[in-house]
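Person: Please comment on this record:
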Amino acid sequence: MKFAACSRLRSDQPTLPGRGRGVALITAVLVVAIASIIATAMMKRQNFDTQRTANIIYRDQAIAYALGAEHWAGIELSKDAKQNNYDYLKENWAYELPPLPIDGGYITGQLQDLQGRFNLNSVLDPLQAERFTRLCQAVNVDPGFIPALQDWIDEDTEERVNGAEDESYTLLNPPYRAANRGLADISELLLVKGVSVQDYNVLMFYVSALPGGVEINVNTASPLLLQSLTYDVNPPDIESMVVARDDNPYQDVDNFVEEKIFAGKEIKEDYLTVSSQYFLLTANVMLGNAPLTLQSVLYRSPTGIITVIQRRFGPTREGILTQTDNNLVAGYQN
């Protein structure tokens, strides 16, 4: 009797048709899938936020390390000023700092003498213009843009022969005007009429943008720059002189211009020196996956006081321009 009653009870309960059971199953699967997608998105967002926070922390730490390298460079330059009154490439400041381990990465640093390069802002002087012409020729760059560079720097609006003033730039797209002041950075050279990206990529290793009266340090200048100081100098003789100066630096300009290789040639002491006040620090910091580069221009007073006159985070000035940069500059020049 009990078995019969249970059988009747089961048979009286409503049952879902096969189609209804399928819809319920699909709905359940969709709910699970949506929940999984939401959970996955939340996890990705959490991982992204975590990584972004870590990168911000790494960047702040990297900036602190880079500024520490800048402070170290200032100390080295101040110490050097107390040792002698000339600068050369075998002094402590001139050696590249090897990779030093730090918590989570490493740091490297290097000081370069900006007075070992040609100062673009001195090109208004006829003697310096001649020297820069020879330097351009030595590195296979057409010096035809030099009058335009002089017009860019001088304060007047009178256009030199083969030069360029506002009229040459205001018709460009986008238009701009001649600066009529000294270059603040060598990258400004790209705005001067006649300077191509290829020219800039070559010249950037040999030039600087310093106050107009700053001289060339003959103890740190490159062989090509020394060769450009006068006419008809034998390059092998310059190379031999460069090797000799590393161990026996010039302590005054007179000793330099009296070298045998300059005998019978017109070489002037103007814009030449054996000491330097302007230096470029390049500090590279790697923390985690966040690289950071700092370039600082340091000025050292005659008494050894260090002043940071320019500070720049990002790619180095010596980095080759990307194709996008090439196209942009091409637009300025056309």
